Amino acid sequence: xxxxxxxxxxxxxxxxxxxxxxxxxxxxxxxxxxxxxxxxxxxxxxxxxxxxxxxxxxxxxxxxxxxxxxxxxxxxxxxxxxxxxxxxxxxxxxxxxxxxxxxxxxxxxxxxxxxxxxxxxxxxxxxxxxxxxxxxxxxxxxxxxxxxxxxxxxxxxxxxxxxxxxxxxxxxxxxxxxxxxxxxxxxxxxxxxxx
Length: 195
Prior knowledge:
The chain is an all-alpha fold. The protein has helices at 2-25, 27-31, 36-52, 55-58, 65-74, 76-79, 82-108, 110-119, 122-135, 137-145, 151-160, 165-194. The chain has one domain (2-194). Helix 3 (36-52) runs antiparallel to helix 5 and helix 10 packs parallel to helix 12 (165-194). The relative contact order is 0.15.
């Protein structure tokens, strides 16, 4: 069993490194707000995937809320009210997929999760971890639905606690979907009323 955990941890780390390389190679494009109008759904998926991964905290902070907010209004000329739905679904899928390596680091490598926990502020992290242990599924959903600074260490901790991966994936997607749809619809209604 320890061998399986090591393989999963190494694969998650390699995937994270690949995302870092991609983000470094395309950072000018990813950071260019002027590019938002040309992004469409593939671009928002890519930005959400990279932003939600472990590199968003460790190396290159890439906020994906602004593109979700703006793109839903930009695409509304073409898709109408379905624009924020498609933008929200696409960015939630990218964000959820981007969080998989983070979860797998905890699931496959307890040593990695212990090191990450040591790097965070002990008291808030330990309180949040106890809350996650008590609340389980509700905690997984809320961790993804609400933007928060302890998302990364708690996702690793959920993996280390051996939270069922399929259940984690579903709840994470639903949480991200709630958050992304909220940003998309707020952007849609706000920017369409201003412009």
